[in-house]
Amino acid sequence: MSAYNRPSDLPDYERPPVSEVVLSIQFGSNPQFQIVHAGLYWNLIRDHFPNVSEQTPLAPAFEAFSTPLIETVPFQVQGFVTPPFPRFWFESQDRAYILQLQQDRILFNWRAISNESVYPRYETLRERFLREVQRLVGFFQEQKIGALSVNQCEVTYINSISFGKEQEDTARLDLVTPLWSDKARNIGGLEVERTLIQTVFVLKSNQRPYGRLYVTFRPAVQTVGFLRPVVQLEMTARGSPEDGSLDAAFRLLDQERGAIVRTFADVTTEEMHRIWSRTDVVR
To answer: Are 130 and 250 in contact (CB under 8 A)?
Structure first.
């Protein structure tokens, strides 16, 4: 697989408000992959990820276009002959990096752990994630527990947007995004206390939909460093690769990342861009 370089036409910032990035590849559930294999796999990576814990597994997620988008998930009762395969968190010593693994998915996180944390950029995270996915593929082959066929790829960026010391009213989303107007603050004479905005975009290639981009603004509290109110902007792009290969999967991850970065510039204000020192435009 060839090396990946940042596209020259992507918006860029000296101080982006990124607080977490997650890269995810989902593949067909493999019942041959058992908990004992997860322990063997940890032996391969524990020098880089010495901390391990178990989490609730993530449900499979697919973007379908043959049926209307359904906002609610019907209640389900499931019975298990055996306990569900957990989701393992393998964390780096400083807790900034997490490799997650479950029976049908592998994820790689970077997260800010202090006010001094510096976002290492997508290209660095992509390279590390590719290395771990290739290691997992080799492990599957060595253990003779089947192949890895990708069916969905997902990129998530979480941004913590601060208003600064002078302005801590997180209801003033008009300062952050053109998706919200200040006129909405006094509809019916009522004062807005909190605002949440979610917009879903369809991702297309050659007029064919291949995925969706979920953009959500919500009030939150920053827990890194000292506590303060922030607006959290979460952007998740998810879609289906052209085929089940790793080449197709990482091409799609790159495409989704590009869609997120370009849309981020469109759904945030120029004033915020100045605060983050946008570098790709002439002032």
So the answer is: yes
Q: Is the dihedral of CA 69, 72, 78, 82 positive or negative?
A: positive
Q: Which helix (H) or strand (E) holds 214?
A: strand 208-222
Q: Dihedrals φ, ψ of 219, to 5°? A: -70, 145
- Best CA proximity match to 215, nearest among 230, 189, 197, 202: 197
Q: To which H or E segment does residue 262 belong?
A: helix 246-266
Q: What is the pLDDT of residues 56-104, one digit of tens each?
A: 999 999 999 876 655 544 444 444 445 678 999 999 999 999 999 999 9
d(CA 143, CA 32): 10
Angstrom distance (rounded) from CA 174 to CA 195: 11
DSSP H/E element including 181: none
Q: Which of 45, 268, 97, 77 lies closest to 176, judged by CA?
A: 268
The domain limits of the chain are 18-62+83-275
